[in-house]
# Entry
Amino acid sequence: MKRRIAVIHKDKCNPLGCGNYLCAKLCPVNRTGEDCVKEGDDTTTKAIIDECIKEGDETTSKAVIDEVLCTGCGICPKRCPYGAIEIINLPTSLNKSPIHRFGENSFALFSLPTPLFGKVAGVLGRNGIGKSTAFKILAGLFKANLGQYDKEITNKDVLEYFKGTQMQAFLEELFKGNITLSYKPQQVELIPKNFKGTTKELLKKANSNTKDDSDKQIQEVAKALDLTPYLDRNISELSGGELQRTVIAATVLKDANLILFDEPSSYLDIKQRIKVSQFIRSLAENKNKSQNQNAVMVIEHDLIILDFMTDLLNIMYGHDAVYGIVSGVKNTREGINQFLDGQLKEENVRFRSTPLKFEGGVDKGETLPVELISWEDLKLKYEHFALNANSGTIYKNEVIGILGENGIGKSSFIKMLAGLQKPSSGSLNEEISVSYKGQYLDYQDDETLVAEFLHLAVTNYSTQLVKPLSLDKYLTKKLNELSGGELQRVVVAKTLAQEADLYLLDEPSAYLDIEQRLLITKVIKRFAIEKETTVLVVDHDLMFLDNISDRLMVFTGKPGIEGNLQGPMGKVEGMNTFLKELGITLRRDPQSKRPRINKPGSVKDREQRAANKLYYA
Ligand code: SF4
Ligand code: SF4
# Structure
């Protein structure tokens, strides 16, 4: 018999709006007299309570579905007017119960990723598959309930669940109190709301070392993460990248031997990502007080960085917001390739019908370049910062990737292109209009309906933007109800739907999982071709930029002091220029064709440096 899972998205279920439990009325099992779909006894949302009071109706609970009685006929998911129901068959190979379920008809997590001492283990999977939930269970933020949300689960029950696995040994130590944890949450932007004070005060609070050398330890970690200049700065004044590094420092300063990092690369530029990766790698080898090695785990969507930072990988797959399964431990290279392939060899599971590919260039046909804008000897001088751009031309119908550290003049240059900033000297040959998506998505308090926000996109670019980015399902939501990944896609669509000569997208990959990054790449490239327009993309995910760009602009110099623009130039030349700045070399994985950072000093690294081909020869 097929095992299935029924999920009711409680935020969508509106029994009063659908005509009083439409799903229960339609269910063929109910018609035989059984209670397959019924009214639940869960709490109501405020909106529904309000509506009930208005209508004098006390029927307010969400629907519940009996997963054993349900035959999976598919009627109710299709007919629910709010898209609140998902009935999904579980893989036949899955023969155990969930490690955790939040409640009846809610998301189910099967198993947990395995930490290993002396190693950095990565967790890779799409958004909504339970990665952060798994980390929160490991971090002890809530207790696994083995899917029995109405029973008291003991540690013995949890050990029994993992009997005979590496996880059992790990949990035994955890329950004995031999493992202490430190956890870096995903949303570092929430920290300033909960902590008032300086960077140093936050680090002091996090540092559990009360010995005399605790200040020395703070200084050392701050130095390793380039935080020394910001120690006396107020937390609320830090940029996203500074805040991210501060939270990483605080996580490390806590005395722990299991350290969990949820998306440590967000807000960091490429140079900082590499530095933080090296720092995180070094933690696994560190000795703690009991002379044991640390176990380090990382959730990360930047594949080059995940590959560089980790030794091992757990892949998570399943169905967004319905269920997530954790694979066995794999070595990182093999694990990433299996994830891209959509097939787990050892488990004999195919979890995606098509592999993810990186060479999916879009054929532009035989077109001659048409100039959009060019410049000569542009200079911009502020009191403490100077930007120089020799000469360059941007054409119509191309996507240009922009590489450079934070604070090196990228935004100032774009403002000059858009006519919002007058150059101190030099000239631009055209006046052009620019549609711009900023780096930060600040819509927490914005109650605008997505349909209203995306009015132009829905009217004019439904097939180019709204449908391929799967935005239809968010149209009835408010902006402040969207997750980071949903909001990112909505704001990209909104930016591209404006009438403009040039589109600038600052960090469109942020909050997106790897599948969404590849999808948005395709959408942006096709949009540029079909509209014969130009898109500039600033991003710090090298693989994303490698994949999306026709040409590159490279900003070099000293952040906050001087920026020099080189290009636009061809991709190989641009990458070589930038990688020289970074001091790394990139090769292509022969199997998946994805770029990988060469180990410094390895044969490939030396060969590529000798040939001056830092970008995979
Ligand atoms: Fe109505 Fe859909 Fe909720 Fe069922 S799940 S009660 S059909 S809104
Ligand atoms: Fe009933 Fe299940 Fe069919 Fe829904 S999918 S109508 S719950 S049998």
Notes: The chain has 23 helices and 25 strands. The longest helix spans residues 514-530. The two ends are 53 Å apart (CA to CA). Confidence is low (pLDDT under 50) at residues 43-59.
